[in-house]
Amino acid sequence: MGDSGSGLSPAAELAHELRPAVADDRVLAAMASIPRERFVPDSERRRAYANVALPIACGQTISQPLVVARMLELLELHPTDRALDVGTGSGYHAALLALLAKEVFTIERHEELSAIAERTIRGLGLDNVSFFVGDGWEGLPDRAPFDAINVAAATGAQLPAALERQLGPGGRLVAPVGEASQRLVLTRRTPEGFRHSTLEGVRFVPLVRDEAE
User: Fold this and answer.
1) CATH number at residue 67
2) 0.85 cut: is pTM over it?
3) How many domains does the chain have?
4) C-alpha span between 77 and 147 (Å, rounded)
5) Which is the catalytic residue, given 6, 9, 63, 130?
6) Is 43 marked active-site?
7) Residue 18 belongs to domain spanning
8) Residue-level pLDDT at 213
9) How many Å apart are CA 174 and CA 186, to the nearest integer?
10) Residue 145 lies in a domain
11) Which stretches of the chain drop beneath a pLDDT of 70?
């Protein structure tokens, strides 16, 4: 996607193209505000606004924009929310969360990726994101509870119980679940317990568990 003569920025044009599939106006406004080309390698910048996943450092990917938008929409984010982003990757998801929530905590097992993402996000003037290097499978229990948890890597056959426990009352968690075949799963913490909804199919790199111990 490039200059179409519409007068819109590439990010705003992307948000406009996603509108038929995404109803949350706050999510679309955030997508229109964040320059996605800042989060991809130089070699991929010509495809920054294509609706595809792109490779980044450390064998990871930046997810396709539609999937990112859908995950954010499913979280039903409020401006007062505290959000956990598992799998910082490029930092694109965390940057969008920063516009939609009050505080964002993002964890990445690759120190190199975390550092690059932090520089990019700070360069955009976003100061409500805290960066951590560690095992995303365990989340950040010392910073819990969270109103929303976004997991940007496939968890395998089941959701990490540690992440569910870090949801506050009424909290929402969205994650790709599955191995050969993955689907987005939305988890809500209700007074009666966790309620899970299985949604559309997706394709993510796996959430690697640190088994050093």
Assistant:
1) 3.40.50.150
2) yes
3) 1
4) 8
5) 63
6) no
7) 10-202
8) 38
9) 5
10) yes
11) 1-6, 210-213
